[in-house]
């Protein structure tokens, strides 16, 4: 397995590369795995979201256990929505409450698939080779907005606010998702602990089927959906989502409200 990160240098430049023994071995980019020769100490760099997706495809009802609890049929094709690039932040960056929303904000701990090359209408075999690696996603949701309008469920609005897509801390290539679990903690208390092998659609199936609906580009992320244990985040609370072999994604819900696009979100989307 290799661990990859995207970080900000002291001069404001963004670097991407493979992490080993406290150093970043820089590469030209996620879609250009050509080493630049630069080796940078991690202590001098500031972590960002490990990739800059043009879009995040977020699945719903992709775990058998949750489908059974909700009494929903298992889908025959991935059910998904899109989260905008501007919603992406990295680990240790605050989630900001929307300025005009006072309702429940929910966490959803998920595995993230990072696409390594453009794919459209690909087979499962081709899809597998299109996966660069895996990361962790917190698919944050303004739950009260989902059904605010009885005539139109507002999935994209509820999940698309700035800072509502936490990704990180790294991408791991060669990761065996089949034996892994997603563990979510809220202020240290365990809220989710579910096996990834309970997924309805495997990562390769997700990439293949979604690529029949829209073209996936290098750096795009598929959030594989969540399972049991989703809950709300209070102001000042910290959500930690851990997948052994990838790391821990940690974000606090800030006590202040959002006022425009925060600089950290803009940097993470660069």
TrEMBL record:
UniProt signal peptide: none
Name of the featured protein: Fumarylacetoacetate hydrolase family protein
Cited SUPFAM superfamilies: FAH
Keyword Zinc listed: no
Domain of life of the organism encoding this protein: Bacteria
GO molecular function: hydrolase activity
Cross-referenced Pfam families: FAA_hydrolase (PF01557)
Keywords: Hydrolase, Metal-binding
Annotated Fumarylacetoacetase-like C-terminal domain residues: 55-251
Alphabetical list of Gene3D superfamilies matching this protein: Fumarylacetoacetase-like, C-terminal domain (3.90.850.10)
């Amino acid at each position: 397995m290799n661990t990859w990160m995207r970080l900000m240098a002291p001069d404001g430049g963004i670097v991407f590369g493979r992490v080993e023994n406290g150093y970043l071995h820089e590469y030209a980019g996620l879609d250009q795995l050509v080493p630049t020769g630069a080796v940078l100490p991690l202590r001098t760099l500031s972590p960002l979201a490990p990739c800059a997706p043009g879009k995040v495809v977020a699945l719903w009802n992709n775990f058998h256990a949750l489908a059974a609890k909700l009494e929903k049929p298992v889908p025959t094709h991935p059910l998904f929505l899109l989260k905008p690039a501007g919603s992406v932040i990295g680990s240790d960056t605050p989630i900001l409450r929307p300025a005009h929303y006072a309702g429940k904000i929910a966490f959803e701990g998920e595995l993230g698939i990072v696409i390594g090359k453009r794919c459209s209408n690909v087979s499962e075999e081709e899809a597998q080779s299109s996966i660069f690696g895996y990361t962790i996603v917190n698919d944050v949701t303004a739950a009260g907005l989902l059904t605010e309008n009885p005539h139109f469920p507002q999935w994209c609005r509820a999940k698309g606010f700035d800072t509502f897509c936490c990704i990180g801390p790294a991408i791991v290539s060669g990761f065996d998702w089949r034996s892994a679990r997603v563990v979510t903690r809220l202020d240290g208390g365990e809220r989710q602990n579910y096996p990834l092998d309970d997924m309805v659609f495997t990562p390769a199936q997700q990439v293949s089927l979604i690529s029949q609906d829209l073209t996936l580009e290098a750096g795009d992320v598929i959030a594989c959906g969540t399972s049991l244990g989703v809950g709300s985040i209070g102001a000042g609370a910290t959500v930690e989502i851990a997948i052994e072999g990838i790391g821990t994604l940690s974000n606090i819900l800030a006590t202040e409200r959002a006022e425009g696009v925060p600089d950290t979100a803009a940097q993470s989307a660069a």
